[in-house]
Amino acid sequence: DIVMTQSPDSLAVSLGERATINCKSNQSLLYSSDNKNYLAWYQQKQGQPPKLLIYWASTRESGVPDRFSGSGSGTDFTLTISSLQAEDVAVYYCHQYYSGKTFGQGTKVEIK
Amino acid sequence: QITLKESGPTLVKPTQTLTLTCTFSGFSLSTNGEGVGWLRQPPGKTLECLALIYWDDDRRYSPSLKSRLTIAKDTSKNQVVLTVTNMDPVDTATYYCAHRRYGTAFDIWGQGTMVTVSS
Q: pLDDT digits over B62-72, tens only?
């Protein structure tokens, strides 16, 4: 299995400030035949199912606010919330769909 | 608009078999590329993909649970059924079904159903 490791496990950010979550895989998620990174980001609020935010590492799902952005390639990826809003309090997961389908352990984002 | 909904028992006893049904709308599992997966999330923990089934009846299973899982589709009813044999308390989790097009991420999820394994 491909192992996904997120950092930090939790972070507290002031409203309007930037939040950055990192995700590292133990093998490359870049598929050479299509030059795409098979990496997605999900947001999960308390008591709700995960919501897809980002796929192909940097493509925002329809309807997702543009304060959410994804970057990275190969084995290192980042989710950035450029200006944290109260409704962004949630746990965020990275997910690889390159081989098998595994998730990071999650990063809890709170308001400072 | 794609929607999915899970149904099944909320409580099962150890060693029993769990059967869950995912009823969906907004797509057809007879359409090229379409798929449905089952995932679970123990309380306070991360997500685990259990099984996937595609339009062509291709079935994929978690290697660690493969011997206990069976996934099947009923295209006429727009349903996907997951069975998990020999349930154990460690299988206590919220079970989700989710839509996936072949080669992409899970994009739409059901609300999930909590299953507790206890005698």
A: 999 999 999 99
